[in-house]
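Input.
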Amino acid sequence: MYNFTALLTCLVALFCFVTSARVARARIKYGVKLPAIAGNDDFERVFRVQMNTLEWIPIFLPSLWLFAIYVGDQIAASIGLIWIIGRIIYMIGYIQSVPRRSPGFFIQALATAVLLFGSIIAIVWRMAH
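Output.
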């Protein structure tokens, strides 16, 4: 069983829900009507947080689960928690200003890289032995 990774996956889904709700509220606050996604810099930063998160999910989630399967559930979930913390730091920073997004982006990118390359190494190791 991969209980920790499953719980972490639920937290990722919850974070996606939060970013979606923030975009909906930002549309109202900044008067950006559907289907527009541009026209107000404050709205665009909130929108980019959601979109960037969605862009990383197809890299992050398979890497998370492969790492859990081939390396370990608790380690994968711990690294996944670092990813969520990085995304939160990214969100807070980016909403304030574009340059402030960088620390959170680096944290989540590093966590994803550890999961991805750790998975690849573990899979190849098992194939070879």
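The chain is about 85% helix and 0% strand.
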